[in-house]
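Hey L., structure's done. Input below.
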Amino acid sequence: MARLFGAARSEDAGTQSPLIVFDSLGILPDGQAAEIRDGVQIDVARGTAAEHKKFDLEVAPAGTRFPLRFDLIVPDAGVEAELVSLLVASLNGLMAGDLSLGARRSRGLGAVHATDWRAIRHELTSREGWIGWVTSDPEAPIAGGLPGAASPAAACRRAFPGLDLRDQEDRRRRLVVVADLSVRGGLLVRSAPTSADAPDAVQLQSGGRSVLPGTSVAGALRSRALRIARIVRAAKGDAEWWVDRLFGPRTEGVSGRDAYEHRASHLRVSEGPLHNGTGLRIARVRIDRLAQGVVPGALFDEEPEYGSAIRITFELRDPQPGEPGLLYLVLKDLLAGDVIIGGTGSVGRGVLCGAADVRTETGERIRLDPQGDTGPANQIDHAIQEFWELDPLRGPHE
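Output:
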């Protein structure tokens, strides 16, 4: 890491990174602007919005493009293969979609996918190489006629055919769940109307498509995880610790946890588009509970989406003992349609059902399907049993 990105300053002066990463100006999709999203914090006990916890976010819409430029200054030809190999290993995360940029990465924002890789090598030990590098166009340093490659490694090998790139061993520990879900009874994650004749509440959209935000899914799963943990870990008295360790700590108004360290969630939840859905505009009224009549001025329209399907990816990074078991219990309720996502769940909306495929940190495959075959059951049972039997947690990092 220090060879490519520079050493941190501690007792010495540190070392400068040989990698130059340039700013990039985003190119928004045609006819679209930055989006404003409403956010709320959910009161876990009541299942409703917490008091004074509403906020807004301005996000770049799906489909925004950023041209990226990286310059790698190689001080010595003897380390060129090593430095380029490290750079390729880092850039592979952009190609595979393993890296997310910006804020709220653990809740689906900032997911990127990079394509059209091109590379050029300037030999700075020669006069021609120096002039070629210095006089290159800052906005387009590589001529447009050079065809793009499918990967960073392919682009670098094309620029320097004799380069010996070395594969970097992937030592990440991850549990990845891919869930294919269908919406039963409509879905409404509210978004503000964009015109005077629009419904009062419509399904959230990004890039011109209806989406299910990761914040809504993670919030509902956190609430369900707390209910499960309070039952399973009742004798241990550490349900809140488990949920905070998996989803990230909440410190507001909680006594005795002032020493909590803010950190991101271990569990990453993707945001994805809804497929094959249809919006249906519905007029609703509010009823006076005492008079059993319509409340004056309380007519409003909603446009939930029906018949949609969505794929959600869950990634549990560096799973600790017991965490997979809690995640399996929560996913079971989600796949069975027992976890409500979004608003107006009291009138039958927000029910998602489906099945999921799990890849454990050791590469084993598990199928979760409440309506069909689930297995291998012994692995699932072992993970849940581990969550049940572990000694009580006494702090956020234990």
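The CA atoms of residues 171 and 224 lie 31 Å apart. The longest helix spans residues 214-232.

-- N.
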